[in-house]
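Q: How do we represent a protein-ligand complex in a form that can be generated token by token?
A: Start from the inputs.
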Amino acid sequence: MKYLITGANGQLGREWVQYLSALNAEIIATTSEQLDITDSDSVTKVVNEFAPDFIINCAAYTKVDLAESDFEGAMRVNRDGVKNLIDACAITESKLVHFSTDYVFSGSEEDRGTFPFGYPEDAKTDPINRYGYSKRAGEIELEKSDIDWLLIRVSWLCGSQGSNFVKTMLRLGREHGEVSVVEDQTGSPSYTFDVVEKTDQLLKQGLKGIYHISSGGEVSWADFAEAIFSEKGQKTTLHRITSDQFKTIAKRPSFSLLNKEKMIKKGLNPFDWRDGLKRLMTEMEGI
Ligand SMILES: NC(=O)c1ccc[n+]([C@@H]2O[C@H](COP(=O)([O-])OP(=O)(O)OC[C@H]3O[C@@H](n4cnc5c(N)ncnc54)[C@H](OP(=O)(O)O)[C@@H]3O)[C@@H](O)[C@H]2O)c1
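Then emit the structure tokens for the protein with NAP bound:
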């Protein structure tokens, strides 16, 4: 099988490269400099030449706050870039594996009441911010298309490579000895190693459509931070604050939980978030 990975320098992209390289798969991994997915000619050329079985699209505009002022930039990558990949897949009959986010939902307290076990894949979308809107626009392009596609929604993505909450907490704790973290936003982390392994299993089953992949359980950012410091054995004072005390440019969801029933029905069991954190911390030691 041949795999083309876009956004190969990002957090998830690097995990895919590592995973597929270990399997000795035939891969072409492209960074944003090597293949800009908003450049339709380049996308067509690269995809035609390599004719991959799978395109693993890890390229995305992920600057959530910036997307509020640079909405066009976000749409160019997260919608138009996806459309370019779809068009190329239509020619080579490659399967497109794409990633999206819990931010396509409103993340409201009302939804917490409606979906106590998390948003199912077919829950009504209502993006919470402009980044979420641009990611939903990419999803719609997939849904409209006739190609073979698999869409994986993840939340709170954390891996050993790239930047994420776990690394930020450890760094802030080291630098300041204390951190302030919101306690009124809950969800569950998607660990990159888990996302890659489970997506590969879904691919091996030949599945298409939307699947949610994140870990089991539900945790607040503050409790997640506490677990990170505890797991690392790092002394850091944790101040628990509310969202009102931590203003961000783009609105953040208070409820980010994704329902995993659909993947469980395919034989894929989610890691408990604490077990996933242990594995992640072990991986980070080795870097
Ligand atoms: N991080 C999270 O917490 C989170 C949560 C939910 C969902 N997701 C989704 O999960 C996926 C992976 O996220 P991630 O955390 O791995 O993101 P990331 O670390 O920010 O990586 C994204 C990569 O895409 C590249 N890129 C940006 N514009 C591009 C373009 N026009 N053409 C080609 N490459 C381009 C970036 O390159 P440059 O750095 O050179 O721009 C970067 O290497 C994304 O679809 C994201 O929306 C992430």
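The pocket of NAP is lined by residues 6-7, 9-13, 32, 36-38, 58-62, 77, 81, 99, 101, 135, 154-157, 162 (CB under 6 Å). The radius of gyration is 18 Å.
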